[in-house]
């Protein structure tokens, strides 16, 4: 395989790629390791990488501008694998303007990469994960674990019956490498869900179990969430608290995607949801 360049050394997937392909080069604004390269995505013209035919993008996709693509192509890019998100579809009609804006940015970024590659003889693959987790690093599962440690209980909205498919960053890193080694994945997009589908409530229960605790899940009705965040919004006007109530209400919405195509084309085989938190440890990591 040709030399690999990973854009986004500090992202969840980027950190896992560093574990499994330490010989790859990683871009960052603060190089700390021998194979780190400086890249400011806002000013990519200064990038001095060379000979990286294979590029994996794990940073926020909307940061990959036309100028970034031009800089990578000038240094030899012939294949790009870029991580987007299934949020592009699941949050299209979100009541939160910020989330709809992210959907727009992701859609534009995907289209920009496809169009650029079509005119520059570069093969592309877009990967869209579902809920990504990595113990102590992510803002989803690890945040739930932190709340459990702090309160000893986790509040949910109603039955919290919405289906989820959490996928570990390690599985996504392996997926990116699988894509690079499989010609059939060129110029295609794939949804990458986790190895099993479970309700939000069951997901929370698994996190309790991973910490050696009995599942103490407090079900609050929708009106209580609306009232509570409404009061907080009055006490703290201008904050992002209003958005949090929509996150709570989504606990009863299914967010499910099919990864059959990924399994067929490059052997994608994610694990079941079994987070590993050390009992009593800070789930936010160091």
Automatic annotation (TrEMBL):
Transmembrane portions of the chain: none
Organism: Asticcacaulis currens
Pfam families: Epimerase (PF01370)
Lineage summary: Bacteria, Pseudomonadati, Pseudomonadota, Alphaproteobacteria, Caulobacterales
Identification of the protein by name: NAD-dependent epimerase/dehydratase family protein
UniProt domain NAD-dependent epimerase/dehydratase: residue ranges: 64-190
InterPro entries referenced in this protein's UniProt entry, alphabetically: Epimerase_deHydtase (IPR001509), Ergot_Alk_Oxidoreductase (IPR051604), NAD(P)-bd_dom_sf (IPR036291)
């Amino acid at each position: 395989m040709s030399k690999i360049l990973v854009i986004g050394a500090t992202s969840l997937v980027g950190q896992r790629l560093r574990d499994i392909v330490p010989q790859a080069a990683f871009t960052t604004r603060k190089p700390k390791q021998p194979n780190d390269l400086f890249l400011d995505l806002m000013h990519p013209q200064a990038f001095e990488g060379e000979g990286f035919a294979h590029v994996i993008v794990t940073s926020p996709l909307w940061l990959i501008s036309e100028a970034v693509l031009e800089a990578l192509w000038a240094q030899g890019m012939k294949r790009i694998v870029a991580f987007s998100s299934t949020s592009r579809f699941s949050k299209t009609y979100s009541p939160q303007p910020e989330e709809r804006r992210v959907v727009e940015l992701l859609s534009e970024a995907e289209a920009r990469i496809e169009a650029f590659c079509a005119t520059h003889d570069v093969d592309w693959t877009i990967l869209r994960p579902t809920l990504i987790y990595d113990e102590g690093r992510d803002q989803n599962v690890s945040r739930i674990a932190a709340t459990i440690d702090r309160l000893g209980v986790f509040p949910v909205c109603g039955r919290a019956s919405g289906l989820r498919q959490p996928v570990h960053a390690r599985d996504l890193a392996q997926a990116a490498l699988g894509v690079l080694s499989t010609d059939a994945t060129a110029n295609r997009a794939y949804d990458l869900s986790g190895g099993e589908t479970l309700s939000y409530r069951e997901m929370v229960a698994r996190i309790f179990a991973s910490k050696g605790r009995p599942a103490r899940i407090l079900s609050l009705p929708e009106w209580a969430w609306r009232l509570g965040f409404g009061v907080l919004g009055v006490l703290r006007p201008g904050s992002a608290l209003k958005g949090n109530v929509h996150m709570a209400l989504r606990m009863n919405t299914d967010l499910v995607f099919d990864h059959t195509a990924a399994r067929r084309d490059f052997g994608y085989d994610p694990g079941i949801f079994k987070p590993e938190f050390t009992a009593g440890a800070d789930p936010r990591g160091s």
